[in-house]
Amino acid sequence: MHRKQLKILLVVLALAVSASVWAGNKKKEKKTTAQMEERQRAQHALNRLTFGPRPGDVDRVTAMGVDKWIEQQLHPEKIDDSALEARLEPLRTLRMDARALVEKFPPPQLIKQVADGRRSMPSDKTERAIYESQVEKYRDKQEKKAAKAEPADQAGDNQGMMLTEEQKAERREARMYARDQVDKILALPTPDKRMQAILAMDPQQRQMLARALNPEERQQLMDSLTPQQREQLMAMNNPPQVAATELMQGKVLRAAYSERQLDEVMTDFWFNHFNVFIGKGAGRYLVGEYERDVIRPHALGKFQDLLMATAKSPAMMFYLDNWQSVGPRSPVGLGESPRARNNARMGRNRPFGGPFGRPFPRPQQRPQPPQQANAKKQQRGLNENYARELMELHTLGVDGGYTQKDVTEMARVFTGWTIREPRRGGDFDFNQRMHEPGTKFVLGHTIKDHGEDEGKEVLQMLAHHPSTAHFISKKLVMRFVSDNPPEALVNRMAGTFLKSDGDIRQVLRTMFDSPEFWAPQAYRAKVKTPLEFVVSAVRASGADVSNAMPLVQTLNQMGMPLYGAQPPTGYSTKAETWVNSAALLNRMNFALRFTSGRMPGVSFSPERVLGSAEAPSDTNAALARLENTLLAGDLSKQTHETILKHAVDPQVTGRVLDDPSRPVNLGVLAGLILGSPEFQKR
Amino acid sequence: MSITRRVFLKGGAMAVVGTTVVPAFLQRVAFASEKAATGKKRFVVIFQRGAADGLNIVVPHGEASYYAMRPTIAIPRQQVVDLDGFFGLHPAMSSFKPLWDQGHLAIVHAAGSPDPTRSHFDAQDYMESGTPGLKATEDGWLNRALRNPADKDTSPFRAIALGSALPRMLAGSAPAVAISNVNEFGVGGRNPQAQPLSNTFEAMYDQSVDAVLHGTGQETFDAVKMLKSADPAKYTPAPGANYPRGPLGNALRQVAQLMKADLGVEIAFSDVGGWDHHVNEGSVQGQIANRVGDLAQAMSAYWIDMGNLAEETVVVTMSEFGRTARENGNRGTDHGHANVMFIMGGPVRGRRVYGRWPGLAQEYLYEGRDLALTTDFRTVLSEVVYRHLGNRNLGAVFPGFEANPNSFLKFLG
């Protein structure tokens, strides 16, 4: 019966393929750009516009017609993505804004306020448990600090560091108790029971429990809970971490399962272009909102809108320090308070408070020695960080023709672009009292003194600058076409950029219509980044990811932590960055682990790779089928033969020669294919 | 490129290790840890990414303008670790003081790249390519320094970078490997069952027509096999070598481990980030203190750990540019120009701050804002390449730069 179904399927496919080839041929007469056969074109388009083809994708796109499919991908709003949305449903922080995140997953400052009685505990039971755990942790720390400091000060010896016998015994006891609890909880039959047991503990015990878990037990416990329970547990242990980890899981799931693949690729591209770093202070609260509300809506829109949105985003202002940049001759720069006029809007009694615990320097904080008092007056001033990266990385490019003088003037223009209520999650705010008065001269233009509009004016100028058109086009070509971008293509795209008022969709169309994009030498010529590699493996194998954290951690090991590029340059898409011995070994090891079924949260089944048909019994046939699905048959003859040669080794395939009935270990074969040189490229 | 790599490797005696057991090599391992068996020179480069604030690291406490320009972040004179009455170390670097006193630590101040760029990316690129102002240079100076025709006995481990990426500085035709964790360097980690899979992958990459994947694959598997015979899991640093927790401490501990295992490591690279202090840099305490404390402690631990081998080892630190002489409006510093470099090692004539000090008075500042440059970083590196590594072909290592032994600062004895 299986065979019959397969036969029908093959016939249908063959018809579809020939129909589309015919359609493709017709087009070829019209334009000379098509240099690949339609099926290969489909494979190529999938490699470049998506995070890698899934089983059946090449057939589907071939049948639909490559050009039509590309046009569809350029309009993501018309593509149904409900399956992905269902997968993202449990990650509720993805739908929250920074303010809510700060409230529900409090940073240390908020906990401190609660512990010191300056703020009350939340009434919601779940939230309360989170706060209580953290307050307990905080008090514990304070006590330890006090215990350490006191005797050492008095006696001047080491006693402060030592615990009394009594304290030691107490600690031993607590440790043993926690140890005992770990085993008990792990042995409970259902997730709900386990969670109940944990919630029944007092905060101190919970803390001991968290410490008593070794990494495997932690993983085991986490895997055994529902996503909501996992979230709550993590929140009790480390609240600010919750949003960050959900965001990272969301990114992997989107890349792997979204039907709007080009939208996903472009969101990744622009995030990386306008990079912000999740590890810098408040970043962990701001980055999710930044990607969702600032980057994604404009991923295929107008460049100027994207640029403006990033410039005003708290995430960018915080990451590149602009929110603290003050005009030296502005009222604030001259020593006045920034809240004179904005009293009600700024943080109540801590106008200089940094977001979430990066205290902003406050001049009057400590009494100063008299000789320094004069120098102290000039406190806050210009910060060039954003102004520089805006031109170097976001728009003109480093050779785009600007000088240090332009950087300084640009920094003056953006003084006053700051964050309102930074400690509560923040919004854009223009603070006139921080803004440098007077005319500015940027890139040969005179910018008259008119407050917030100065910034808007220069952003417009930058968004329409020929250097920007060229710089952006070149970067797109490097992502989509080649590490060595053909200059002619870059110039044509830059032309489209300028003609279309920076319409990203139009610029992409110019690229997708170009002979350079479809040139045979472009086929499988780009080395995948770690993210592309890992996600393409998930997609190629049709694996089901129930917990994306292990994949997120894999990317950390591969040197590409998600949202974790510290420098404003973001990650490179060039081969040389990602091909080296440590990276290759990491990839091979991931491939083997992934296909072995030993990766928690990820179910890989070779049967799924092979589709509904029966698993072939001989190695050669099995390998051929796997190659076809995982690499669209693009495995070289040499690699195929190498795998085949080594596959006779029982340790490789689990096959023993005297037991022909034992099936081939398809997982290992798949692992070898995913770790092969061919699979490293797209 | 693949052909060069291959010939290079196959020409090297150590390449044989890849295919057969080499008893001589294993014998060497057994005896090597306590004596400098090979007489090889070793060179370690540490890159401080993000532009370290040299003026708060080696503090010109004899300069009145230093204090005038940095009202809140200057290191008070009474708290610096004084070196010569004019310069002093940041107090968090006190672990450097014994090294200084013993003459194993030298400093070059007002050093760096002459290119005026204040872009992290460009400046790092130039310092790694070794050709400031030239973007087209494809390989890195440290890789070119390795291509010394006089060298014969080369190992796949001759040049290593600790981390998951090979730095630009080591990019090029001479083999170099990136290692993120010595104990997990191999297919299947330390699981012996994985050997057949490792062999399969090795054969695949060996046959790959992709030049880059082919070449890197080959280097990788040669290195994996060699490391396996040295059994890296068994390692305890020498007594007193207290590496700080964190990436740099980990990296230098593994560098020492690999060097002591006598795998033929000559060049090692590690980088350390977190120096871009635009806001709240700190002074005696704070961000800068944490960074420099970590740096000094990691380097001192490495020095102790290397024991006798330290006699033949030179460590150099560098950073893409310095920071503004004045603090900015946020108690931090912005991107500047010249910076400080440390040189540590057995052959170093230490206890001295080399280079001409340009002064911090307004009229001496570069573009009116930054410490001016008086020593090109290539002058410093040329001396190490020429005198320590014995590579006389400086024109190839730093093309377009006039470096000759007469211009050296002579910090190597």
Outline of the structure:
Chain A is mainly alpha-helical. In chain A, 58% of the residues lie in helices and 3% in strands.
- Trace the largest sheet of chain A across and list its strands: 1-2
Strand content of chain B: 5-15%
Mean pLDDT of chain A: 84
Low-confidence stretches of chain B: 1-38
The global form of chain B is globular
Q: What count of helical segments of chain B does DSSP give? A: 12
User: Alpha-carbon distance between the termini of chain A?
Assistant: 36 Å
Radius of gyration of chain A, whole Å? 29 Å
Please give the structural blueprint.
The complex is a heterodimer of chains A (682) and B (413).
Chain A: H1 2-30, H2 38-49, H3 57-64, H4 66-73, H5 82-88, H6 98-104, H7 108-115, H8 125-155, H9 165-187, H10 191-200, H11 203-212, H12 215-223, H13 227-237, H14 239-257, H15 261-273, H16 283-295, H17 303-312, H18 314-319, H19 370-376, H20 385-394, H21 404-413, E1 417-420, E2 427-430, E3 440-442, E4 445-447, H22 452-463, H23 466-480, H24 487-499, H25 504-512, H26 515-518, H27 530-541, E5 544-545, H28 549-557, H29 575-578, H30 581-596, E6 602-603, H31 606-610, H32 619-631, H33 637-646, H34 650-653, H35 666-674
Antiparallel strand pairs in A: 1-2, 3-4, 5-6
Helix pairs in contact in A: 1-3, 2-3, 5-14, 6-16, 7-8, 8-11, 8-13, 9-11, 13-14, 14-16, 14-27, 17-22, 20-21, 23-24, 24-25, 30-35, 32-35
Chain B: H1 2-11, H2 23-32, E1 42-48, E2 58-60, H3 64-69, E3 81-82, E4 87-89, H4 97-101, E5 105-112, H5 120-129, H6 141-146, E6 159-162, E7 177-179, H7 195-207, H8 211-230, H9 247-260, E8 267-272, H10 287-306, E9 313-319, E10 339-345, E11 352-354, E12 375-376, H11 377-388, H12 394-397
Parallel strand pairs in B: 1-8, 1-9, 5-11, 5-12, 6-7, 6-8
Antiparallel strand pairs in B: 2-4, 3-4, 5-10, 9-10
